[in-house]
Task: structure prediction
Amino acid sequence: METALPPSLRVERDGPVAILTLARPEKRNALNDKMVRGIEDFFRHLEPGIRAVVLAADGDHFSAGLDLSEMVERSTFEGVAHSQMWHRAFREIEQAPVPVIAVLRGAVVGGGLELAATAHLRVAEQSTFYALPEGQRGLFVGGGASVRIPRLIGTSRMVDMMLTGRRYSGEEGERIGLNQYLVQDGAGLTTAMDLARRVADNPPQTNFAVTAALPLIAEANPREGSMMESLVAALAQGTDDAKSRMSDFLTGRGAKVERP
Result:
């Protein structure tokens, strides 16, 4: 990579897929500022040729959240600045020019859930459990959870999680929208890599439209959203790549949709 990452992050490359791994299992991959800044640097300086990213973790847990040993007394202004640093880093994932697929297992808690929520696809192993314990600790989420998680599960469910400490399993998470896939323990990375290779084969303009434009269209009012959709559709179909793929489909050379 063009930037030096901390030892708590590891990067590997498998063809067009990059794997960014949280490598701090002795701390249940608790996120400290060096890790968050390293994540930001990685996504800001993606290597050429990367078409998808898998976000994984060493050990039995994806991430237990904020490293509480870094909790220091901050002024109000310093607290705002620290939260905004997390926002900048996680926005790099959410707005990445390529799809990002997270592999979840064990604890996906607090800041770990905030990190997972930035991914475009989430694959959860059976051991996965979700929680937002900030409410019981006299804290409030600061890494974007109050923006992203209600979009996934609804405001009322997030309120319940923060007020009561309610946990959701990976199976429940699939039902309510925290993860799109549920697999056996140990199968998460293989499944995520299969998905990553599949989406890496999509036209890049389509992947960009889906990951970058679609969320904005969904948030817009209907009139503005419809106009944005028309513009993005026209831009995508006007590329040489799209024209070639459509020609292949119409002449029987392209792949067809198969029954799952």
Remarks:
- The beta strands are 9-14, 17-22, 52-57, 100-104, 107-109, 121-125, 129-131, 168-169, 181-183.
- DSSP finds ten helices and nine strands in the chain.
